[in-house]
Amino acid sequence: QRARQLALAGEPATSLDGTSVVVAANLGSVADARAAVAAGADGAGLVRTEFLFLDRSSAPGVEEQHDEYVAIAETMAGRRITLRTLDVGGDKPLSYLPMPREANPFLGQRGIRLSLEHRDLLRDQMAAICRTAREFPTSVMIPMVSTPGEMVEARQVLLEAAGPAGLPEALHIGTMIEVPSAALKIEAFLPYVDFVSIGTNDLTQYTLAAERGNGAVTALFDALDPGVLQLIDHVCRAARGRIDVAVCGEAASDELAIPVLVGLGVRELSVSPSAVPRVKAAVRELDVARCAALAREALTMAGADDVRKLVLAMLSGAG
Ligand code: PEP
Ligand code: MG
């Protein structure tokens, strides 16, 4: 089965009723990019740039970052790469960035909040991203955004970093949707974004108040909880016909979540490189009209377990 999936991996993922879903890869290194291409990824939907910043005594300069982004872009051979700006915080400290000690780092200075406090660092990263975008199809994505004002500020820094040439024409600018307030206020974000990518790992954590990775609350932590799905639905409805919606959290490679996400209107799934062939195969088995009906029903359910049962029933032909 894996061999058949791999043979088809380079082909687009098109559902039984003809809907195409982009299946991209999440990357944290140039080696991941090689794995993504071998697995047939349509692009890189999330490049976690943290790998360039961790385990060192000073921040990488513009030149060094640009070289790494170019190495990834060259490996992706013309496919679009989505570079996420630095997403660190109290849970992932950096020795050269003074960070407050926080009792609740997941509710503290993370992602864009920290980047806006250290604008020189953000400006350097934006400069490296702009240079890359003048040479390769590139998107930039901002993590942990909770209010449109943060996107306005991030865009200001991007514009400063772009210099006299202005923003690269082919650069797409997007925000991650990881905080419930951002999902609920999606309309207010639309003037400032070309796309959004839903980070279901953090969105699930913040919606259910269940810390990701905390073993005591794993039963609660499920992106198929209808509360999370209602937020995703809200985003997809506002975005329809205006901007693209991707999902780049773990849910994107969960075979029971994929029919629901596609049914809600998600048209890009970004997953770990090794999952790409399996996710493409799962999309090819779907009837999107049926998924849409399934998703409507999922939104009305009480819990993630009910949703999983519903999807299982459909996939096994009983639904
Ligand atoms: C997410 O939160 O779903 C996400 C993709 O970002 P990360 O896992 O890097 O926090
Ligand atoms: Mg996240």
UniProtKB/TrEMBL annotation:
Coiled coil: none annotated. It is found in: Cytoplasm. Component of the dihydroxyacetone kinase complex, which is responsible for the phosphoenolpyruvate (PEP)-dependent phosphorylation of dihydroxyacetone. DhaM serves as the phosphoryl donor. Is phosphorylated by phosphoenolpyruvate in an EI- and HPr-dependent reaction, and a phosphorelay system on histidine residues finally leads to phosphoryl transfer to DhaL and dihydroxyacetone. Belongs to the PEP-utilizing enzyme family. Homodimer. The dihydroxyacetone kinase complex is composed of a homodimer of DhaM, a homodimer of DhaK and the subunit DhaL. This is Phosphocarrier protein HPr. The gene is ptsP. The chain holds residues 516 to 834 of 835 of the full protein.
